[in-house]
C-alpha cells in the first residue's frame, strides 16, 4: 500500500524509538524485558519487605527506610521509564513562566499502519502491577489501622500515596487528560443503572 508522505510527516511521535518499535512484532513478545522486570521488582520488593520485616530485623527504622527507598525507586521508574516504554504513556507537571502549575498527560500516537506499538504482554504486566499493588497497600493500611500499628501506618500511607499517584496519572493518560474522571465514572454508573 502506498503511503502519503505528508501523513508520515504530520504523525509526529513523542518517543525516539517509535520507528524501530513499529517494525517489530506487536502481539505477545516482551520487547523491554529489563523495563518489565523493574516495573514489578521495586513494587513487589517493597511489599515483601513490609511483610517480612518483623521476621528479618527488629529495627523499625531500617525497615521503614528500605521500604520508602523501594517505593521511591518504583515511583521514579514507573513514572519516567516503564510507562513510556511498556504502554507509551507518560505524565508530568510543568510550571509556566507565571508560576502556574499544569499537569500534562500524553499517550503515544498510533502508528501509520493503524497498529499499536506496545505488545499485549507488556501492557498486561504494566496494568496488572499498576493496579494490584496499590490495592495491596490499601489492604495493609486498613490492617495497620485496625490492629493499632500506628508506626507502620505512616509507611503504608507512603505506599498508597506513591503508587496511587502513578495509578491516577496513568489512568488519566489512558482515558485522556482533558476528561474529568468523576464525570466519566458517573456517566458509566448511570448507564449501568439504566440498563438494569
From TrEMBL:
Name of the protein described by the UniProt record: Golgi apparatus membrane protein TVP23 homolog
Subcellular compartments: Membrane
Parts of the chain that traverse the membrane: 33-52, 58-78, 125-146, 152-171
Xref: InterPro entries: TVP23-like
GO BP annotations listed: protein secretion; vesicle-mediated transport
Naturally occurring in which organism (per UniProt): Cnemophilus loriae (Loria's bird-of-paradise)
Main location, first listed in the record: membrane
GO cellular component, as recorded: Golgi membrane
Record carries keyword Transmembrane: yes
Amino acid at each position: 500500500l502506498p503511503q502519503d508522505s505528508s501523513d508520515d510527516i504530520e504523525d509526529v511521535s513523542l518517543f525516539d524509538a517509535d520507528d524501530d518499535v513499529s517494525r517489530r512484532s506487536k502481539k505477545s513478545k516482551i520487547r523491554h524485558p529489563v523495563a518489565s522486570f523493574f516495573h514489578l521488582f521495586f513494587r513487589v520488593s517493597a511489599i515483601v519487605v513490609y511483610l517480612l520485616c518483623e521476621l528479618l530485623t527488629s529495627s523499625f527504622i531500617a525497615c521503614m527506610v528500605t521500604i520508602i527507598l523501594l517505593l521511591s525507586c518504583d515511583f521514579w521508574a514507573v513514572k519516567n521509564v516503564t510507562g513510556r516504554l511498556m504502554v507509551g504513556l507518560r505524565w508530568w507537571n510543568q510550571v509556566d513562566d507565571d508560576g502556574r502549575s499544569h499537569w500534562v498527560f500524553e499517550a503515544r500516537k498510533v502508528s501509520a499502519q493503524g497498529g499499536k506499538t506496545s505488545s499485549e504482554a507488556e501492557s498486561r504486566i504494566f496494568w496488572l502491577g499498576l493496579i494490584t499493588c496499590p490495592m495491596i497497600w490499601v489492604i495493609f493500611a486498613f490492617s495497620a489501622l485496625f490492629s493499632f500499628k500506628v508506626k507502620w501506618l505512616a509507611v503504608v500511607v507512603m505506599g498508597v500515596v506513591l503508587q496511587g499517584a502513578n495509578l491516577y496519572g496513568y489512568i488519566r493518560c489512558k482515558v485522556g487528560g482533558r476528561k474529568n474522571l468523576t464525570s466519566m465514572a458517573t456517566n458509566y454508573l448511570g448507564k449501568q443503572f439504566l440498563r438494569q
